[in-house]
Amino acid sequence: MSKYDTICAVSTAQGTGAIAVIRLSGKESFPTVLHIFKRKGELMDIKDVEPYKAYYGEIFDPIPDDKPLIDEVLVTFFKAPHSYTGEDSVEISCHGSEYVQQKVLELLVVRGCRLAEPGEFSKRAYINGKLDLAQAEAVADLIASQNAAEHQIAVNQLKGGFSGELQELRSQLVDLTSLLELELDFSEEDVEFADRSKLYELLDKALKHIGKLTDSFHMGNAIKNGIPVAIVGETNTGKSTLLNAILGEDRAIVSDIDGTTRDTIEETFTIDGLTYRFIDTAGIRQTSETIEKIGIERTFKKISEADIVIALLDGTKPLKQIFKAWSNIVSHVNVLTQELLVYVNKKDAMDAGTMFSLNDDFIDYMKSDYEKNIEKHGGYMTDEYCYSITGMDLYDILSILTFSYISAKNPEDVDDLKSNIRRKTNTPKIDGNTVLVTNIRHFEALTHAKESLEAVRKGMDDKLSADLLAEDLRQALYHIGSITGEVTSRDVLNNIFGRFCIGK
Ligand SMILES: Nc1nc2c(ncn2[C@@H]2O[C@H](COP(=O)(O)OP(=O)(O)OP(=O)(O)O)[C@@H](O)[C@H]2O)c(=O)[nH]1
Ligand SMILES: [Mg+2]
Question: CA 196, CA 178: separation in Å to the nearest integer?
Fold first, then answer.
């Protein structure tokens, strides 16, 4: 990319809108626009242009004799370095006709502008020091944001919240490096530098800081891509009915045939500012059918990947069957890291007595099942017994042994279920200071930095010399610097900005 070429692109969405914005950036942007723009019927002299002021006028084609009018527009000039890209820039707001947009671009290109590559405006902003790389990526996140939480995190990152944290981390590592260098200086004089406690202290502080950032990726990623909620249960319990009811559309096929859903179906839905990714799964049952088997394996995989698991039981089935279905699901859930919500569906078809007694009956059922196997398990209800059927101890089981009764066909019940999901979502309070890692590139760089720091720590335990430790420390600094773009290769830049839209 030449530093001197002037680029142009339509910066508003493709298609026909009420208005469209065409953006130019580069040294020639003012004179180029002034060739094709008339204000009050007159060409403007570049000396008369006041930046940051919107001029109303006309874009025309200067070549034909009749100098046809293309559109009435508003033109704003931005003087370097006070523009998004840090270069002279112009924005032309024209009417949204695709013909007008193309015609204006054509007039600009004929006068020497080049059509911008994807993300080139933001790339120039980064190169000219207007944004660091993490902030430029926040621009893309902000544009793509679909819910309040995602939006807030992108705004914080754009304002430099994340970059600030990284600067702090950097300065911690720089402090560490200077301590090590001190040791290096001394070692030339052959002085034993025995006390490394200060080094340990700084290192542990940096490791803790970095750990906090890498840990936040799980939530950051969930907020960006939707918090995964798996709907699981035996066949015909009403999982697809429930998915459709949550989404408010007929997304999945519903039928009374067992094994209707054979593959997972995922759809996002926003509840109270947070986006969830609801996953309808193939019903769990014994089957010899190959495709269905693969579907059921996927169900178990989805259970393990979900943050929230909705176990959907069929209340019209005998207790024994409900119990088996329940324990099968529970044994695949990690109640320490996952939220398990147990719902008994088809309330409308259940009799009230069953509903009232299900919790107690469950315990009784466990006890009687246990008594049948008493020989095997000793004289009282053991954790070992509970563990053998559910993978949890008795205490954990009792703590989650509450069922909610719903009818997936009843909109009020489904609304309650949605509110319950929202309540059970452990998101941090997201405000103007929240910093969460949402970008996989950042997460990877932080993870590498953490590994390098752990290597430093191990090196210290092994009493390695300062120059060897310094090498790992430099690696950690390198990885942190790669996030904000202090050290970045051309390929990485092209890869990042190439994913932006044209005009961004
Ligand atoms: N009475 C009653 N029937 C329901 C309810 N929810 C679902 N059903 C019925 O249960 C049957 C199965 O519903 P689906 O939603 O296809 O069940 P599924 O769990 O997705 O089944 P598979 O895809 O086979 O695993 C259908 O006939 C639904 O109409 C409910 O709340 N009450
Ligand atoms: Mg289904």
Answer: 13
